[in-house]
Here is the input.
Amino acid sequence: EIPDPDLVAVSLTCDPDNDTPDALRRYADRFEADPGRWKFLTGDMAVIKDVANNSFLLPAELGVHSERGVVFDRRGRLRIGRKQSRR
Here is the structure.
């Protein structure tokens, strides 16, 4: 639990065939996730891989679950994750 009201957690599935919106809703309910603060996302695996690889800078493989995460600041800049080169 993080008390900062501006924090929003996003979980992105790597098993979209099984993690349907209804399945993710049940999962969120099981953890009493506040839908305003914790989003569970699914979709086309090609899009998921693109977002994971190019936005989160994390690998994404079908059916592989990870506990790794990243943090974006209010400006949408990646703050924690794989090191990036400075420009």
About this structure: Helices lie at 21-30, 45-54. The longest helix spans residues 21-30. Residues 82-87 have pLDDT under 50 and may be disordered.
